[in-house]
From TrEMBL:
This is Uncharacterized protein. Keywords: Coiled coil, Membrane, Transmembrane, Transmembrane helix. It comes from the Bacteria. Residues 57-162 form a coiled coil. The chain crosses the membrane at residues 12-37.
Length: 303
């Protein structure tokens, strides 16, 4: 009888040892899975710039689901083993069974944490892929913006070069004598007598002007409607004006033209002749009621 009990006790001890060894193997495998998950997360962080397709992500989700199913089955098998042991184990081995249950509970907690880590890793990896896609899209937009900016800068430089106006360098000229002309009735009048003007006197030009009033302080004149140079015939006007201007060197004389409103349309003809002759000129537009006062003296103009 005693020998039979001893044999039965030894068999239970052997069964318990086998279960403990199996349990230890499960613990080892679980710890190995946790370590592998941690190392895989580090590798994913290091390879954050790599691109994984949606198909690869789906395969990872399936692998994770299969691993969770396997872990759940192992937990159920372990629970059944412990329940079987509780029904057949002798009283003297109850303490070891209690220790096994505590270890099993800790193992279950570890497996839950491992499953949670696996899910978190998958979610982080998906977020990482999404971030990578957004960054790639932003990089493309940045490249397009840089290209557009380069084109705009090139166009801006071309427009700036096209708008560059080269102005002549300012020069200092000695003061010039002023030659006064009047433009009205579409005719150009020399206000002063050319012969007197060359001698330094500024007297009215009797060929172009009619003296209407003489006073001790002033002489009032009026241009003759039929005198002067008729600008409605540009070719003849050019010949006559150049002939009169020939007596006044461009290096010593400038031209000032007083223009009345009735002759604005022929001003371009007079300006063309004066400018082609090489004279500095100034324009003085006036109203019909404007009265021009010449106080005499020898005028000099700075240009």
């Amino acid at each position: 009888m005693k020998r039979t009990r001893a044999t039965g006790g030894d068999s239970l001890e052997l069964l318990l040892d086998t279960i403990c060894n199996t349990f230890g193997g499960i613990v080892f495998i679980s710890l190995l899975i946790v370590l592998m998950l941690q190392s895989s997360r580090d590798r994913l962080t290091a390879r954050e710039t790599s691109s994984v397709s949606e198909q690869d992500l789906e395969l990872m989700r399936l692998d994770l689901a299969a691993a969770e199913v396997r872990v759940k089955r192992l937990q159920e098998a372990r629970a059944r083993q412990i329940a079987m042991l509780a029904r057949h184990i002798p009283d003297e081995l109850q303490e070891r069974l209690h220790h096994l249950r505590q270890t099993t509970e800790r193992q279950t907690q570890l497996e839950k944490r491992a499953a949670q880590r696996r899910q978190e890793n998958l979610e982080r990896f998906e977020e990482l892929q999404h971030t990578h896609a957004e960054r790639e899209e932003m990089r493309k937009q940045l490249e397009a913006a840089r290209k557009e900016l380069t084109e705009l800068e090139s166009q801006s430089r071309m427009m700036a070069d096209a708008r560059v106006v080269r102005l002549p360098r300012a020069r200092s000229h000695p003061p010039l004598h002023g030659l006064q002309l009047s433009l009205c009735y579409d005719r150009l009048y020399f206000r002063h007598d050319p012969d007197e003007l060359l001698s330094g006197q500024r007297r009215p030009n009797p060929d172009d002007y009619l003296i209407t009033e003489v006073d001790s302080t002033f002489i009032r004149v009026q241009p003759k409607p039929t005198a002067g140079i008729d600008l409605r015939d540009p070719e003849r006007a050019r010949a006559l004006l150049l002939a009169r201007l020939r007596r006044f060197p461009q290096s010593e004389w400038s031209v000032t033209v007083t223009v009345w409103p009735d002759s604005f349309d022929v001003w371009s003809t007079a300006r063309s002749i004066i400018a082609d002759a090489g004279y500095h000129y100034a324009l003085f537009p006036c109203k019909p009621e404007t009265e021009i006062v010449d106080r005499g003296g020898r005028e000099k103009v700075h240009f």
